[in-house]
Every structure is written in C-alpha cells, then in structure tokens.
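Re: the 335-residue chain
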Amino acid sequence: MIYRQVDLLNQSGFSAAVLHREAEFRCQWFPNETRILGGILTIDPDRSIVVVPEVYEQAEYAKLPKDIPFVIFNQNVYYTFDKFSVNFEEEYLPYADPNLLGVIVVSEDSKNYIHTAFPKVKVHRVRCSVDPELFYFPERKSNQICFLARKNFMDVQQVCQILRHRDRLQGFQLVRVLDLPQTKLAEMMRNSAIFMSFGDPEGFGLPAAEAMAAGCLTVGYHGRGGREFFKPEFSYPIERGDILGFVQAVEQAIDDWVNRPEATIAKVKQASTYIRNTYSLANQTNDVVAAWSAILERFPGQSLPKAHHFSQSTQDSNQSTYDLNQSIAPPSIIF
C-alpha cells in the first residue's frame, strides 16, 4: 500500500519516494518500479513532509525533528496504541503533535476509530485497490479451500482440525497459503472455491477482498476493517472467536458449491464484481489525490516541488546523503 501510494502520487503530479535504510533494498513479492531512496536525508521543513506508520514506538515518534510536518499512514488502527503504556504522564502522543498534518487510513471503520480517539485530527480515507489483471473470476475452480494463518493461529488450528474430524469436506482440500509472490497468491485464489479469513483485527483486510475478487466464496472474520465489503448477500462473515460458527459456515459453503452450483457461481460473481468496482485503481487514485490535496492545503511551508528528480551526494563509500535543499527538486513526500 505504501509503494502503491507513492506511485500514484508521482503519476498524479506530486513528488514522493519510499525511504529505506539502503537504496538497494526493494520489496520483491510484487512487481514494482517505485522510487526508492536510501541513507540519510537532510530535510527542509518548508519543502518536505514525512510520512510515518502507526506502529512506531513512542521513542521513534519522539525522534522526529520538532519542526518537520508529518502525516501518519495508519494501515491498522487497532495497532495505534500497541506500543503505548498506561503511564499517561510520560507519553509523547504523535496524534496531538502540532506538526501533524493529518492521518491517512484505509477503511471507514478506521476513519471512525481515529475520529473517536482523536476528534481534532484530520482523517483521510484512501481505499485499497485490487488488481483486476490478477484477481478475477476464472472459468474453472478446484475443490480447494485456501487460507492464510498469519493471525489467530489457534483459531486456524481449531477450525481446520474440527473440519477434518467431522469428515464433511466432501472431497475439498484445505490448503494453507504460505509466503507467495502476488502472482502465485492470485493463482491459488483463482483455483480455490472457498477462502477462509482469519484476519482480525484488520485495518481493511486485503486478502479477503482479493479472494472475493478471484471468485472465492469467502468465509470468516471481517476483522472490523473489512466489515464494509464482507456483505452477507455474497459472503459468510463470522465474528472473531466463533469457532463452531466458522466450521458450520465452511460446511455450508461446501454444500453450496456441491448442491447449488449455479446459485453459488452467481453469488461469487456478484462479490467479484463488487470488489473490483469498489476497490479499483481509479477509485484509489481519486482518494489519494483528494487526501493529499487537502493535506497540502494545511502545509505551512512553501509550495511543494513536483519535479520527478532528486540530487544525491556521497559522504563516504558506505552511505549516501540526499540533500532536500538542492535546486533540483527532490521528493517532497517521504514515506
């Protein structure tokens, strides 16, 4: 989501980059040509905005230079206070920092969370997008139930074991999705008839949305962030911890595929169409442009440069420094 947002900003006439410790590093699990910076940055607060994640510890937030305007990109609001204690007197709260220009979130649930926790903070919702070239309803499906086990592993164990011992899978195979490149993940979802969602809590819940787009009858946790698309008319939403309800819903989904294939295909096609239309690249682009246009209206510095070039100088053989005060316009929004 960070790489995608940087790409969309640059394509829309802004100037943005992802900062890694090393310029040679790049996320490889999905294809990208995102602009990357590495090393130490010299930042002019009149020309640059720093974007930080929601998962920083207090000490990391406190290291931000006092005069640097910043934005928090909060991809999972349920981790907002994860690194905070209950010792309120000693806390630095980034959401109350006068240099905070706003918070970007990825779902309506997240927007409501931030509004409730921090009523004075400006919040901007940016939709995620699902790649229609990868996640689409295929002509054929296998008797396969795929799932990720990144969260709530005890729930995963219970659901899978109960399904196995009840002997009601009717020839369907349970397949765990391990760390796969995006293309392989999409292929597995397209081949699967059912997807089990164990993600909770979630800021949005992209895997479940991608599974629906790929034509999986999706069963499981909406994670709160995914409640907006986990609609009962084309999925089986389950509240977290309802193990028996989860098992029963999976068995119902299997029965749907086996005994009511035409109605089930119509249902999963409805889900696929909804996801692909609602979470399209065009909608995400519009959200990104609207959010950042509003943020820049609150920017206290000069007009931000929008050129797509940066200058680089080398302090020593091991580390690069990017001077954001050079006459050649540097990236002005730094993730």
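Residues 2-129+281-334 form one domain.
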